[in-house]
Amino acid sequence: MEKFDSSKRLISLDMLRGLTIALMIVVNDPGSWEHLYWPLAHASWHGVTITDFVYPFFIFIVGVSIVLSSSKQLAAGANKREMIKKIWIRSLKIFGLGILLNLFPYFNFMELRIPGVLQRIALVYLVCAHIGLVTNWKGQVKIAAALLIGYWLAMMLIPVPGIGAGVLEPGQNLAAWIDSMVIPLRMYRGTWDPEGLLSTIPAIATGITGMLAGQLLRQDMSIEKKLNYMFFIGFLCVIVGYAWDLVFPFNKNLWSSSFVMFTSGWAFMSFAACILVVDIHGYQKVARFGVIYGSNAITIYVLAGMLPVLLSNVLGLQGLFFNGLVDIGMAPKLASALWAVVYMFICFIPAYILYKKKIFIKV
Questions:
Q1: Which positions, given as ranges, span the membrane (predicted)?
Q2: Residue 159 carries which DSSP code?
Q3: Is residue 254 assigned to a domain?
Q4: CA dihedral sign of residues 176, 181, 183, 189
Q5: Deepest in the core among 175, 285, 297, 331, taking most CB within 10 A?
Q6: Closest to 274 (Cα-Cα) out of 70, 7, 20
């Protein structure tokens, strides 16, 4: 077993980040939204599919990266005030990219949607990075527990005007009501938004779970013990998530507390498995695809959000591909999934070019 040095860049983390982005592109870009295999679609409301793991996994990875990056900066003698300035600048950049994606390609500001995937990532990063500068792992555990329990109690006990307390149905829950009060302009679902303000609170807890994984890697103990702890913590989180699901169901749209525990548990175990295979046993060739994608993850995500305008709206390639396969007798769901995979490999081309030229765009 090779010696493990957590102070060096973790190939496994880059791989996990890249694979997460690749899967995010696949589930975001089917050949037809009317023809989806159920694992490649989000759960309609309560419940969870593999697609629902993508977003929390990425936020978990953000949390890990916060700890590894800030610890290196502090060890090098970085000034905390300067670090906070950079945190705010980066958060604003990511938030701005999210707004750009929401406006693209028509830039109709009257129909602007302010919440979004990158916007939530920006807010989670902003809060978690500050938490990481002022607390240790024990404080982070307490904050995460307070956020998850507080969110659960609020959703179940605070009555929504005209509806009552404990209602979790679409558009009728506390998160939707608060979002309708504070979010201006357009929301994704009309009366509610899956990336709304209140449900960002438990998403911060997801980021903290990633920070805890990063903190564990920095502890002075053998790598075998670290991985044992990671697998155990992950398994425990999954069990707690299952138990919590009985009273506060898995729900990606609400980012329910049970959803946080369940997905973070699997993220812990997946990260540990990647470290074991790639960083410990040295099977780095299996990581290459993910590393290439993960080296410019947000850049490729933004590009993947814009390319369909050219490939589908202008060149019509998506329609030609999907309809052509269906016309020769292929099942629509299979044709739809194949386009998603093809599109993911199309997006891999600029990722590969950037990687080969050693261009790493820091957002």
A1: 53-75, 87-105, 117-137, 144-168, 196-217, 229-247, 259-278, 290-314, 334-355
A2: P
A3: yes
A4: positive
A5: 175
A6: 20
3-state secondary structure 291-327: HHHHCCHHHHHHHHHHHHHHHHHHCCHHHHHHHHHHH
Q: Are 16 and 270 in contact (CB under 8 A)?
A: yes
CB burial class (10 A; 0-12, 13-18, 19+) of residue 289? middle
pLDDT, tens digit, for every residue of 35-75?
A: 999 999 999 999 999 999 999 999 999 999 999 999 999 98
2 within domain boundaries = no
Query: pTM score, two decimals?
Result: 0.95
Q: Is the dihedral of CA 332, 338, 341, 345 positive or negative?
A: negative
Domain that includes residue 131, residue range: 11-356
Q: Is residue 338 part of a domain?
A: yes
| pLDDT tens digits along 295-329 | 999 999 999 999 998 888 878 899 999 999 999 99
Residue count (the chain):
363
Task: Tell whether the model's pLDDT for residue 2 goes beyond 50.
Answer: no
Tokens of 151: 């969110």
Determine, yes or no, domain membership for 362.
no
| Sign of the Cα pseudo-torsion (343, 348, 353, 354, in order) | positive
Q: Please name the residue that has the structure tokens 């369940």.
A: 262
What total of structural domains would you count in the chain? 1
| 225-242 pLDDT tens trace | 999 999 999 999 999 999
Identify the helix (H) or strand (E) that includes residue 222. none
Alpha-carbon gap, residue 205 to 217, rounded angstroms? 19
For tokens 């037809």, the residue is 32
pLDDT of residue 4: 54
Distances (CA, A) of 335 to 142, 203, 298, 311, 326: 47, 34, 27, 17, 7
CA dist 215 and 217 (Å) reads 5
